[in-house]
Amino acid sequence: MHSSGVRLQNTFGFFTTVTFFVAALTALSALLYPSSPTANINLRNVKVRTGRPHYTSTKPQEYLLINFDLDADLTSLFNWNTKQVFAYLTVLYNSPSASSSPSKYTENEMILWDTIIPDVRSAKLHLVNEQAKYKANDITGKFAERNATVRFEWNVQPHVGVLYWGSIEADAEGNVVRKVEEGRRGKWGFQIPPAWGKKPVVKKTAV
Amino acid sequence: MDALQNLIDGFIDFEGQKRAEQLCNVLLVLTGVIAYVVGFVLQDLTYTVYIGLGGTALTMLAVVPPWPAFKKNPVTWLPAGTTEVEEKKEQ
After folding, report:
1. B76: left (phi > 0), else alpha (psi -120 to 50), else beta?
2. How distant is the Cα of A18 from the closest Cα of chain B, in angstroms?
């Protein structure tokens, strides 16, 4: 510490150490804020239409079109270390196909809709009869009337620290599982209908 | 020119070096604690960032220049020529 240059270096060096510890404590403070987001989804209109992915494509394929209602409260994910939250709606179908020829692709997930929530003021989502943002198609080109469910997911991006994910979904009986037990209403599961103009392979069971 | 060179070098005495080091550590740790607590209480990380940077700037202002407070105990050398007797004994 005998000359100005050395003092400058030492001060800056210790500044980086202090910054590291402040950042580490900030990242750890996420443990102090347990979050309890809620979500309710109601599927309104599920359709499958055939179309060509490109003007020049010769092979048509099926597209899944979904309208849904979404009520979600992600307020509890926001604290002093939250930069933004990415919320998205996934449709997943793992069940074997209803037709006689089962698909070899058994685990399917597609994101239908998403949004970036930049601050706590817009953390309450209320969507009515919203259309899916993205085109959804099966890898084989045919959905084969499988049973599907939707899952509401979120990804928290903090200023300092690790990203973390969470989700709310419904089980086979329509009970909402994971994170929230209250607020199980609406329709989360569905059977993918046959494409427009096609006859269903299996008859719909009476509800 | 010599004055400018002195300012850039900024040499301080041994006692001053010890005090500069202590001052630097105490101020920076204090800055970190205040920055964290203020940001946590007000729930806004921007306060933490600006208090941290501001506190570090103040610490540098306090520690880096050769303030007169760091030069209060200059080293006093022995007067010249006092070692002459010993040199004669060696021969």
Report:
1. beta
2. 6
Count of other CB atoms within 10 angstroms of residue B55: 21
Residues in chain B: 91
Matching residue, tokens 């046959």: A194
pLDDT digits (tens, 9 = 90+) for A38-97: 888 888 888 888 988 888 888 888 999 999 999 999 999 999 999 999 999 999 887 766
Q: Complex ipTM, two decimals?
A: 0.83
With an 8 Å Cβ cutoff, are B40 and A81 in contact?
Answer: no
**Nearest Cβ partner for B10 among A3, A19, A26:** A3
Domain residue ranges in chain A: 1-32, 35-191
Chain A nearest-CA distance from B90, in A, is 36
Q: What is the pLDDT of residues A21-38, one digit of tens each?
A: 999 999 999 888 888 888
